[in-house]
Amino acid sequence: MMKTLLLTGFEPFLHFKKNPTMEIIKELDGQVIGEWKIAGRIMEVDFHKSGDQVIGYYEKVKPDAVISLGLAGGRTHITPERIAINCNDGEKDNSGFAPAGEKIADEGPDGIFSTLPINAMVQHLHEKDYPASISNSAGTYLCNHVMYRMLHHLQQEGRNIPSGFIHIPASHDMAVESRRLPSWSQSDLTAAIRLCIEVL
Ligand code: PCA
């Protein structure tokens, strides 16, 4: 039976002029990968909106799994995240708001582990010669925020479906403007996320 995967990406943020997760969402939305039908959605980079956005998409799409994608400019590998922490911190978001270490959920747990098959994803990527490793920190910015909010919501609902976050490197066109940004081709980034979905 066909299952539905909610796959989210983000708009550009900080000094980045684009976000390669948007291209992945555009390309994979509506596609079928293995037994998964992809529902692709884009989120804002906004501490007051993004968490409600991902949960809103979840309520509408009623998916059987959730994978959120984010750009980690500077990383060289595809990095499934191990854990989200109960903390908002970092630079100004796209609305101009900068948090200062507040909790995401006052009564929430300090950390919530990804329920995606992160080891199998990394192994599958290695088999196809894509650099990949598990990341032990999704940071404290919007990516961690969205990962935490979605996992916490599922915990509260008592719904046991795979959910988590994957950070990706910048794309080549972004690196043209910067000498310090490791980059992948957009087609390799998209192919790597396909492989992650295959092992779901
Ligand atoms: N990356 C940021 C937020 C949006 C995105 O694509 C992050 O790593 O938190």
UniProtKB/TrEMBL annotation:
Belongs to the peptidase C15 family. It is an enzyme of class 3 (hydrolase). It is found in: Cytoplasm. Its main location: cytoplasm. It comes from the Bacteria. The keyword Cytoplasm applies. Its EC number is 3.4.19.3. PROSITE patterns: PYRASE_GLU. It catalyses: Release of an N-terminal pyroglutamyl group from a polypeptide, the second amino acid generally not being Pro. Keywords: Cytoplasm, Hydrolase, Protease, Thiol protease. InterPro entries: Peptidase_C15, Peptidase_C15-like, Peptidase_C15-like_sf, PGPEP1_Glu_AS. GO terms for molecular function: pyroglutamyl-peptidase activity. CDD domains: Peptidase_C15. Removes 5-oxoproline from various penultimate amino acid residues except L-proline. Gene3D superfamilies: Peptidase C15, pyroglutamyl peptidase I-like. The active site is at residue 81. This is Pyroglutamyl-peptidase I. GO terms for biological process: proteolysis. One of its GO terms (cellular component) is cytosol. It comes from Jeotgalibacillus malaysiensis. The keyword Transcription regulation does not apply.
